[in-house]
Design brief:
By secondary structure, the chain is of the alpha+beta class. It contains four helices and eight strands, in the order βββββαββααβα. Helix content is 31%, strand content 22%. This is Transposase.
């Protein structure tokens, strides 16, 4: 894996993240703090901050032509979403070597741009509500998976839909003693 400023990248190093297809992303709150609401009876109950996260997802996705949102869910301390890059979405050529220029080019790809804009906008709005400036909301990176086939898409959609039901077992739940 490529190291960027002492961190290992979770991205596929030779993959163009502007390629049409489906991408599953997970974005976590810094220190796994449960800021967006709570789970009750297997259902996510978003508070004011969670509603910002919901609305900003819709706003961010709609701001990129050729991109659609599939299933998504706000959890108390993270967000899961499927992003669909359509055939006619903006394409970017990507160098696949691992030097700094390639890392800069990777940031211009669509999936990192969508996630980056989403994180920036939600951070800005939530920091305004909390009356704080420049505080970190999200963890520095995010997890992604390129969806490879229909069976995998089905499993991911089920995972997203059932995530609130399985909160007690979720590895991102800070109260999980597993």
């Amino acid at each position: 894996m490529n190291k960027t400023q002492g961190r290992k990248s979770t991205r596929l190093q030779t993959y163009n993240y502007s390629t049409p297809g489906l991408y599953f992303v997970t974005i976590c709150v810094h220190n796994h703090s449960c800021l967006f609401g709570s789970i009750g009876d297997g259902e996510m109950r978003c508070n004011q901050l969670g509603k910002i996260v919901e609305q900003q997802w819709k706003t961010t996705i709609s701001s990129f032509p050729g991109i659609k949102s599939d299933e998504w869910v706000v959890m108390p301390n993270h967000f899961h979403g499927l992003i669909h890059l359509l055939e006619h979405s903006e394409q970017r050529l990507v160098q696949t070597n691992t030097n700094d220029h390639a890392n800069t080019t990777r940031r211009k790809m669509l999936i990192p741009k969508v996630v980056g804009k989403y994180k920036m906008q939600t951070s800005k709005l939530i920091n305004q509500v909390l009356d704080r400036k420049g505080k970190t909301l999200w963890m520095r990176g995010y997890w992604d998976r390129v969806v490879r086939n229909e069976a995998e898409l089905y499993r991911i959609r089920e995972y997203i839909a059932n995530n609130p039901l399985k909160w007690e077992l979720d590895r991102l739940n800070p109260n999980n003693n597993l």
